[in-house]
Amino acid sequence: MFSGAFTVPVTPFRNGGVDVEAIEGMVEFQLQNGIHGLVPCGTTGETPALSESEDRLVIETVVRMADGRVPVIAGSGSNSTDMAIKYTKMAEEAGADGSLQVAPYYNKPTQEGLYRHFAAIAENTDLPLILYNIPGRTAVTISAETIARLAEIPNIVGVKESTLSMNMVSDIKRLCGEEFAILSGDDPMTLPLIALGGHGVLSVASNVAPAAVSDMVNALLAGDFERGRELHYELLPLFRVLFIETNPIPVKSAASILGLCSDEMRLPMIPLGGENLDHLRRVMEETNHLLPTPEEV
């Protein structure tokens, strides 16, 4: 159902509030540069710092600007099952085409608890759901076996894989079959994941390099691994510098450098500075051919 290069956009702020005008410009920038879908209110969008009304505003703005041109998969998960259901219903009302559901963080449920959590959400929405497996942030891994159980539920259609394990990707593919979408949650892992039968990426780097990331994924999905590898290695310095500090700090600074939005963040996140900002600027200069600006659209 979902394949290609999906951008997980930053949430722009101005003077403490959500900058709707910047969101509108960013969505158009993404679409004009060939991105295949948008995932508002993910980790990159600072969703832990957004209120429920702000979540709705961001999702509704992205849906309105996308206007059916690409699917919008809203981040609406929580470590509370009741809250995840509430936010997912809100995303459905806001017009989202799907929902990204992170594994419950901090409370570290068992595999059976994970299964019941996601199954309960699925029962309460008609949206297709993508599981989000990111133990580095949640302190819990959804096992391949649990993902396979969940894949039997009709509206659980895929997984965003951020375990950094190709063994995990292989097991999910083996257990869940061809139709279940496996999407990379880490830009540098997109190439090997697609080589194992994956379907694309939910990307951070495409906030600033949407055309290059979508071109790479298009090539890989078409079986042109020579071109896909070429773009992978061209993008690799950018992939790496965008995680020089905790995401989304570097990518929001990069978006600010391109003029897409301000670098304003909400505590506990703070803008990039010092040597790391200098390093980001150097890498962006070296990869300038991969970074379109809004004026070029």
From TrEMBL:
Organism: Rubrobacter tropicus
Gene giving rise to this polypeptide: dapA
GO molecular function: 4-hydroxy-tetrahydrodipicolinate synthase activity
Site keyed Part of a proton relay during catalysis: positions: T43, Y106
Residue sites binding pyruvate per the record: T44
Family matches, as InterPro entries: Aldolase_TIM (IPR013785), DapA (IPR005263), DapA-like (IPR002220), Schiff_base-form_aldolases_AS (IPR020625)
Gene3D superfamilies per UniProt: Aldolase class I
Summary of the function given for this chain in its UniProt record: Catalyzes the condensation of (S)-aspartate-beta-semialdehyde [(S)-ASA] and pyruvate to 4-hydroxy-tetrahydrodipicolinate (HTPA).
Keyword Methyltransferase: no
GO biological process, one term: lysine biosynthetic process via diaminopimelate
PANTHER family according to UniProt: 4-HYDROXY-2-OXOGLUTARATE ALDOLASE, MITOCHONDRIAL, DIHYDRODIPICOLINATE SYNTHASE
Family named by the database record: Belongs to the DapA family.
This protein's record includes keyword Flavoprotein: no
Compartment annotation: Cytoplasm
Catalytic activity, EC: 4.3.3.7
GO cellular component, one term: cytosol
Complexes and interactors: Homotetramer; dimer of dimers.
Name of the molecule in the record: 4-hydroxy-tetrahydrodipicolinate synthase
Keywords per UniProt: Amino-acid biosynthesis, Cytoplasm, Diaminopimelate biosynthesis, Lyase, Lysine biosynthesis, Schiff base
Broad class of where this protein is predominantly found: cytoplasm
Principal EC category: lyase
